[in-house]
Automatic annotation (TrEMBL):
Domain of life of the native organism: Bacteria
Lineage summary: Bacteria, Pseudomonadati, Pseudomonadota, Alphaproteobacteria, Sphingomonadales
Database matches in Pfam families: BTRD1 (PF17660), Peptidase_C70 (PF12385)
Native species: Allosphingosinicella deserti
Descriptive protein name: Peptidase C39-like domain-containing protein
C-alpha cells in the first residue's frame, strides 16, 4: 500500500489551484480493510481504503430538484418470502421467477434426475404467473404435482389424490389477470389425519382455523392470495404431535416483522407463510415452530434480494426450507445485483461509479473509466497515462452521469430511506456524495435495501477480495450512512439515475 508523501500533498494543492471549487481533503486513515461482493446480514459499516479517502467528488453547485421533487416510486411488484435452515438434508435445487413453461421444463429435467418437488409457489408478476420452487433428491416417497390449475380442477385433483392416500406437501394460489390459479405437491407420506381448505376469506379462514385447532389439529402451511381485492387463504392442518407453534394472518408488514423478530428471539422458526396485496397494503400470514434447527427468515424480497440472500445462506451452509411469492406493494429487501468497478486511479471514484452505472443500464457497453476521463478532459492519453497529473483528477459525478444520459434528479442533501428503497425497487441505483470530516469527497452508489433500514452500498474505493477489478459491496445502517459512513463520512448529496 502506498504511503502519503509531501510530494503528493503538494501535488494536491497544485490541483486545487487549477480546478474551481474543488475541496481539498487530508488523508487521516491509511488502514485498509476490504470485503468481497458478498451479501452479509448486518454489518454496520466497512472501513474505506486509502484510495477511497483520497478520491474527491467535486461539488455540484445549484440543486436541480428538491427532495420532494424526486417523487415517490412505490409500485406493485413480485416479492418473495423464504426461510433458510441449518442441518443436513438431501441434495436440493431451487428456482424462482420462472414462467409456467420454464417451471415445467425444470420439473421435467430434475424429476428425470431423480429429484422431486417439495415446495412450489405460484405468484403474480403483472399479468404473468410465475413460479418459485425447491426440489429435493428423491427419497422413495410417491408424489404428484400440478400447477396452473383453476379452482375446480384443483378440487377435482385433490379429491382423487385423497382417495389414493396422498396428503399435502406444498400448497399455493395466486390471482393472475383476473383468474385464480393453484400449484401444489401431494405425497404418500404419513398416516396422521389431515384437512386442507382453499378459497377462504379472512373471516372464514379464522373460523376454520379455530375449528381445526379445537379438534386437535395443528397448522402445517398457509398461503394468502388476493381475490376481488381481498385476502383469501389456502392452508392445511394435521392431527399430530409436534413442536410448539404460533400462527398469525392478516398482518401488516410492520406487524409481521415485529411478530417474526419476537418469535425468533423465543426460538421459533418461520416454517410457512406468504403475503398478498389488499388495496395498496400488503397482508402477511405465517406459521412458526419451536425447533432445534436454527434458521434465517426473509420477507418482502425482490428477485435480486432473494438471490443474494440465497447465496448468502449457502455460504453459511444453510438450506432453503420454503419459498413463497406474491404481488406486493412495499419491498423490504431489494438488491439490484449491481457490479461496481474498482476505481483505477486514486481520483477516479466518479469515473468508476459512472461507468458502472452505464454498464448496469447497458450491459453491452464497452465504455471504460479512462475513456470517460478522456472525454471529460478533452484528452486522448488517459488510457496510457492515467496516473498523470493531467488525467488523475477529481470530477463532478453528477455531471459525468448527466453526460452519459443517466442522471435523473439531484438534490444537495441526503434523502429519506424510503427514497432509496423506492429507487432500488424501481431498478435504479442511486449516487451518493460523501464528505469526509478531514476534507475531501467520495462517490458511492446505493444499490438496494434490507429490512431494518439498512442500505446496500457499492464503493469503488477498495478492491473486492474475490475480484480485484471490482469494488466492494457492503450493508450499512441508514443512520450510519448519513452521518458516519466509514467513521468520518457525511452524506451530502444524492443523485437518482435512469436508463
Amino acid at each position: 500500500m502506498p504511503l502519503v508523501s509531501n510530494r503528493y500533498c503538494l501535488r494536491a494543492m497544485m490541483i486545487r489551484t487549477k480546478l474551481r471549487n474543488l475541496d481539498y481533503g487530508t488523508i487521516s486513515d491509511l488502514r485498509m480493510i476490504t470485503i468481497g461482493p458478498i451479501y452479509i446480514a448486518r454489518p454496520l459499516a466497512c472501513i474505506v481504503s486509502y484510495y477511497a479517502k483520497q478520491c474527491w467528488d467535486q461539488s455540484f453547485h445549484g440543486v436541480l430538484f428538491t427532495q420532494e421533487g424526486m417523487g415517490a416510486l412505490q409500485m406493485a411488484q413480485s416479492l418473495l418470502m423464504a426461510s433458510f435452515e441449518s442441518g443436513a438434508g438431501p441434495a436440493f435445487v431451487a428456482r424462482h421467477g420462472q414462467t409456467a413453461a420454464d417451471y415445467q421444463a425444470t420439473f421435467d429435467e430434475w424429476t428425470g434426475k431423480q429429484y422431486q418437488p417439495v415446495c412450489v409457489s405460484v405468484y403474480r408478476d403483472g399479468t404473468t404467473a410465475r413460479y418459485a420452487s425447491i426440489f429435493h433428491q428423491k427419497n422413495g416417497v410417491a408424489f404428484v404435482a400440478r400447477h396452473g390449475l383453476d379452482g375446480s380442477q384443483y378440487q377435482s385433483q385433490v379429491t382423487a389424490w385423497t382417495k389414493e392416500g396422498y396428503r399435502p406437501r406444498s400448497l399455493s394460489a395466486a390471482t393472475v389477470d383476473g383468474k385464480t390459479v393453484f400449484a401444489c405437491v401431494y405425497e404418500k407420506n404419513g398416516s396422521a389425519e389431515w384437512a386442507a381448505r382453499h378459497g377462504l376469506s379472512a373471516a372464514d379462514y379464522q373460523s376454520v382455523f379455530n375449528d381445526m385447532v379445537g379438534k386437535g389439529f395443528r397448522p402445517r402451511a398457509v398461503c394468502p392470495y388476493t381475490v376481488d381485492g381481498k385476502d383469501h387463504y389456502i392452508a392445511w392442518w394435521e392431527k399430530s404431535p409436534g413442536n410448539a407453534w404460533v400462527a398469525r394472518h392478516g398482518l401488516s408488514e410492520s406487524a409481521f416483522r415485529q411478530t417474526h423478530e419476537s418469535l425468533a428471539a423465543q426460538g421459533y422458526d418461520l416454517v410457512s407463510g406468504g403475503s398478498c396485496l389488499v388495496g395498496s397494503s400488503d397482508r402477511y400470514a405465517g406459521i412458526w415452530e419451536k425447533r432445534s434447527a436454527s434458521s434465517i427468515g426473509h420477507h418482502g424480497m425482490t428477485s435480486g434480494a432473494y438471490q443474494a440472500n440465497f447465496e448468502a445462506a449457502l455460504a453459511q451452509k444453510l438450506r432453503p426450507s420454503f419459498v413463497s411469492g406474491s404481488w406486493g406493494a412495499v419491498p423490504v429487501d431489494v438488491n439490484l445485483r449491481f457490479r461496481i468497478q474498482r476505481q483505477q486511479q486514486s481520483q477516479w471514484c466518479w469515473a468508476a461509479c459512472s461507468v458502472s452505472v452505464r454498464r448496469y443500464y447497458q450491459p453491452a457497453s464497452t465504455l471504460t473509466q479512462c475513456q470517460l476521463v478522456n472525454t471529460r478532459r478533452g484528452r486522448s492519453d488517459c488510457c496510457t497515462s492515467g496516473s498523470s497529473m493531467a488525467c488523475n483528477l477529481p470530477d463532478n459525478t453528477a455531471d459525468a452521469l448527466d453526460g452519459l444520459g443517466h442522471l435523473g434528479t439531484l438534490t444537495g442533501s441526503s434523502v429519506d430511506y424510503s427514497v432509496l428503497r423506492d429507487q432500488s425497487a424501481a431498478g435504479r441505483p442511486t449516487f451518493l456524495r460523501i464528505q469526509w470530516s478531514g476534507g475531501g469527497r467520495h462517490a458511492i452508489l446505493a444499490t438496494g435495501v434490507e429490512d431494518g433500514e439498512f442500505v446496500i452500498v457499492c464503493d469503488p474505493g477498495s478492491s473486492s477480495a474475490v475480484d480485484p477489478s471490482l469494488g466492494t459491496t457492503s450493508v450499512v445502517d441508514y443512520d450510519t450512512l448519513r452521518t458516519a459512513y466509514n467513521g468520518s463520512g457525511t452524506w451530502i448529496a444524492t443523485g437518482t439515475t435512469n436508463s
